[in-house]
Amino acid sequence: MNDLASTFSLDYSRDGFVYPVDILTPAEAKVLRDDLEAGEAALADDPAKRALLRGYPARLLPSYYDLVNHPKMIAAAKAVLGPDVMVWGSGHFIKEANTTSYVSWHQDLTYWGLDKAEEVTLWVALSPATVASGCMRFIPGTHREQIVPHTDKFADDNLLTRGQELAVEVNEADAVDVVLQPGQASVHHGHLFHASGPNTTNDRRIGAAIRYIVPSMKARSGPETEMFLVAGEDRYGHFTLVDGPKERMAEADFARVAADNERRSAILFDGAEQVRAPRQ
Ligand SMILES: O=C(O)CCC(=O)C(=O)O
To answer: What lines the ligand 1 site, CB under 6 Å?
Structure first.
């Protein structure tokens, strides 16, 4: 292991996160943001497809498929997970300029229906993530907790699927503000306590949360969802492996992604009192 990889793993095992990790140059991050925003503009009259584009960009835009396969992304994912790596998801968290959208304290893996915690998120900033724009806040060391109780509140401005909130006390005095420049990423564990506040700036706050898992992970129940294999081998066949998009925003890809979104919603809302549409 080289020095960088060993510092990375020491910090990650101690804190449950590492940041900032340089992935793209600011100019490369701008190319991705422009590609997303061109897609959003083209789908202005089709909110359902626009929501799919924001939620599944690597299935619909070759530029995002390249991001999830970027050698620096894969190196970070492998440093945590080992040689075999799949992509569970690539969705955005977008906070429009001067809005009250927020993310409550939560642990990612709570409602994903997976049997283990061998998952890591690389959250890639496509605009400045600052305290003013509502960057993420992490509580060091909380990744060592198992999944703790959450309460589903379904608050309108909460970007999480169920508006779920940790039902245990969070010592916010310990929180670390995860400030990132466009093109930088943070890396966090699926049990880490984290949250983020509103965007009080005049620019959108855009992050792409790329979720990597090991192929031995398994759904506890529910339908088989679609994933990319991006490193090593899948010796288990627990999920349906798919190819990356051959063209930009192809109709056939939208159809497959819409069907996969139905399957994923059934898992994410399993047992919930309400089901709400993906964020538009
Ligand atoms: O983008 C945010 O503010 C929150 C993202 C988040 O909770 C996650 O990536 O797990």
So the answer is: 93, 103, 108, 121, 123, 136, 194, 196, 207, 209
Query: Ligand 1 pocket check: which of 196, 204, 205, 268 to mutate, most ligand atoms within 8 Å of Cβ?
Result: 196
- What was the pLDDT predicted at 180? 98
HSE-CB at 125 with a 13 A cutoff on CA atoms is 26
| Ligand 1 mean position, distance from CA 236 (Å) | 29
Atom 1 of ligand 1: nearest residue by CA position? 93
Q: How far is ligand 1, taken at its centre, from the CA of residue 119, in Å? A: 14
pLDDT tens digits, residue range 100-143? 999 999 999 998 889 999 999 999 999 999 999 999 999 999 99
CA–centroid distance, 131 to ligand 1, in Å, is 14
What's the predicted TM-score (pTM) here? 0.95
Q: Where are the domains of the chain?
A: 17-268
Cα of 231 vs centre of ligand 1, distance in Å, is 24
Architecture of domain 17-268: Sandwich (2.60)
Kind and range of the H or E run holding 64: helix 62-68
**Residue 21: φ, ψ to 5°:** -115, 125
CA gyration radius, the chain: 17
Span 204-258, pLDDT tens digits:
999 999 999 999 999 988 788 999 999 999 999 999 999 999 999 999 999 999 9
Residue with tokens 């994410």: 268
CA distances from 158 to 9, 51, 78, 165 (A): 32, 16, 31, 10
